[in-house]
Amino acid sequence: MSIGRKFCATGLAAVSAAVLLAVGTATPASANSSECTVPWGWTTCTTGRVAADPNGHFVEISTWESPKPFNNPICSESEIRWKVVDAITGDVVRRGSGKVTDLRIDRVYSQYVARLDNCPRMTVHLSG
Prior knowledge:
alpha+beta, Jelly Rolls, 2 domains, five-stranded antiparallel sheet, four-stranded antiparallel sheet
């Protein structure tokens, strides 16, 4: 094997190891979250299931308008309508409107989804 190929193989192995290390060290908070954005032509989206934080028994929700490739004359962030729903029972735990950032919902112990009901390009992020 030529020296060039040896360096290439060694570099590839080092990059592969670095990628595996980075992927394998994801924090539980980032792994226990879900996000969705209302697509064009739709008026709703629902996140995947997120378990409440096992130590603090809370979930956090954030909502915002996604970056604008085009102007959205239909609605603004103030018109965002959201709710957090118990994924097991279907009970609404909290609902609200407008943009929120890391709003903490305490005393929750189950799995939850967040749902948006409004305009395209609005995004919701739920974490436990």
